[in-house]
Amino acid sequence: MTMIESRIHAVRFYQDAASLCHIAGDFVADGLLSDRPAIVIATPEHRQGLEERLVQRGVEVAASTTCGDLVMLDAEDTLARFMQDGMPDPASFVKTIGPVIEATRGATRRIPCAYGEMVDVLWKTGHTRAASRLERLWNNLSRTLPFSLLCGYAIGSVYHGGDVDEICSHHSHVLSEGGEVTALA
Questions:
Q1: What is the bridge-based pairing of β-strands 181-183 and 173-175?
Q2: Residue 165 φ/ψ, nearest 5 degrees
Q3: How many domains does the chain have?
Q4: Residue 15 contacts by C-beta under 8 Å, 6 or more apart in sequence?
Q5: Is position 100 within any domain?
Q6: What pLDDT digit, counting tens, does each position of 45-91 carry?
C-alpha cells in the first residue's frame, strides 16, 4: 500500500487484531518511510502489533521514537485527558491532541500521519454519540492543522442499523483488507 494524499481522514473496519495491525502498520510505515512523522493512539495490544509491523517494514521504531518522528500513545489514557461527563470536550481535545501534532511536525512542518482507535474504544463501550463527536472534533482540528488520520473500528461493534453509514459520514476514505483506498462520496 502506498501512502495516499497528505490530508485524509480514513476508516478501516477490522475483523481481528492481526488484520488491523497489518493495515494500520502499513499506513504508519508508509508515512515514516516517506519522511513523514507518525502518531499512534492505540490500545496496548494493538500498539505492540503495530510496532511489530513497523519493524517488519524496516522502520527503526526506537530511533523514530527517540527523534520524535513516532509518537505512541495509549488510547484510553489519551481519552481520559479530554472526556467530560461522557463526551469529548472540544477545548480539552485541542489542548491534548494539537500539541502532539505540532510537535511531530517539527521545524520542517511535515504533515504527520496518525492512526487512532479512541473512537473504537468509545464505540465498543456503547458510547456511540461520544465517538461520533470525537470524529467531528478530528475533522475540525484538520481545518487548522494538517494531518492524515486512519481510524480503526472493530466490525463486530458497528454493524447495527445505520452505524456504518454514521461512521463513514465522518471519513473521506475507507481502507480495504487489501489496503486499497477508496474515496467516500
A1: antiparallel
A2: -60, -40
A3: 1
A4: 154, 155
A5: yes
A6: 999 999 999 999 999 999 999 999 999 999 999 999 999 999 999 99
